[in-house]
Amino acid sequence: MKWNGKRMKEKVLLPSYMKTFSCIGNACEDSCCVGWTVALDKKIYKKYKNIRHEELTGKFNKGIKRIKGTTASDAKYAYFIMDQQKRCPMLNEENLCGIQLNLGEEMLSPVCTTYPRILNTRGSEFELSAKLSCPEITRLALLNPGGIEFDQTEYEVKSSWAINTVNDAQSIEGDDIFWNLREFAIDIIQNRNLSVSDRMIFLGIFMNKLQDVVEKKQYGSIQLLIDEYRSKLGNRDYVSSLENIADNIPMQIKTLLEIIMLRRKLGINSQRYIDCFDNMIMGLDLDLSQEIEIRDIEEKYLFNFKEYFVPFLNEHEYIFENYLVNYIFENMFPKINTEQIFQQYIKMSVIYAMLKMHFVGISGQNKGVTTDLAIKLIQSFTRVIDHYPSYLKGLIEIVTINGFDTVAHIASLLKDRTITSERLDLMNN
Q1: What is the pLDDT of residues 254-286, one digit of tens each?
Q2: What tens digit of pLDDT does each residue of 160-179 get?
């Protein structure tokens, strides 16, 4: 790839919300320069060390630390040392970046100048999306009732942006397979004839079959598999059978309790997420000083679900749909070159199931959910997942250690309880 100067126009596939995004700076409710480790590559590190500037030179000398040992690389060569308030040393009192103010945007590190954007390439194709750990992106991406749409358009790509390159296995037959797979995954999640939980379950059934095909390296039959399951997605009888899959509330609560223990063990310090986490605890009437039994929570969990969460879900199901579509696009899901198709699906399912359990608890504490509260939870939860790798790893281990990593178990973990008039009467009595 050749860059002509610092910027160039490229044909880029992007969700429509990226066309209107711009950083809102110090008006943002959660600074991306607070609480995060900002990595510096070797090139920008040397530039910073050679700068002579009345305000910044001292900050560069005191605020940057080299990464040494086997973990060091040209891409991750050093990092900014956060102060006692977990703030980047380059931030001024107005929460604006001193580097950008004094030296210009071109002197920002690739991490800083790219975030929250995610620029992926596969071959000569560019894709641009963004992280939901940014509050403004979360609003733009999730609050569109019409769903996320995609456009291929000319877009100004900066040479300083970090690029993630995805290389599919050379043995895969046909350049269109990757695109067809992901297009079908998005079509499943955007199929509003099904509840979001049933869409995820259908996707899991398909991914499990795809895993078999990829393991046998039968790449030529992937399109046939897509066609088969696209037909099933349009089959009313098959789709209706998904509604008969039973939920497993005790398993969901057991998983939730282990999440709580994991959060306490890791000591996550993102205040926005801690606020949401504490709300979840209070909304479930949990006393963490005592041993908690699943049966002690089940009644409260189901009450919150029925009384407070379901009304919000029924009116704003598109938020959860958009969340999953953005996840699929941002992560280039599924990556068939890894041959770990179903493991990728498990990761996606665990994140979504955990997020939904947070919603159930928080809805009880707040006697419902507003869109502002939903944005705060999703954004802060995404930030923690992205920037505390041990948290996500621990979440996945909870599922695998308990043997919940089969199609049937994941379905039970994802499944929403169907609230019928008969069941409402039973739950109210």
Answers
A1: 887 887 778 777 767 788 999 999 999 999 998
A2: 788 888 765 444 555 578 88
| 287-291 CB contacts, 8 Å cutoff, 24+ apart | 288/260, 288/264
Please give the Cα distance from 179 to 168 (Å, whole number): 11
Residue 79 DSSP one-character state: E
Of the candidates 34, 164, 160, 39, the residue with the CA atom closest to the CA atom of residue 107: 160
Domain boundaries, the chain: 7-165, 177-242, 249-428
With beta carbons less than 8 A apart as the criterion, state whether 196 and 317 touch.
yes
User: From CA 250, how far away is CA 231, in angstroms rounded?
Assistant: 34
- 118 forms beta bridges with 129
How far from the centroid of its chain's Cα atoms is residue 175's Cα?
Answer: 27
Residue 369 has phi, psi (to 5 degrees) of -130, 135
Low pLDDT (below 50) residues in the chain: 1-5, 169-171, 420-429
Q: Which two tokens mark 334?
A: 């599924």
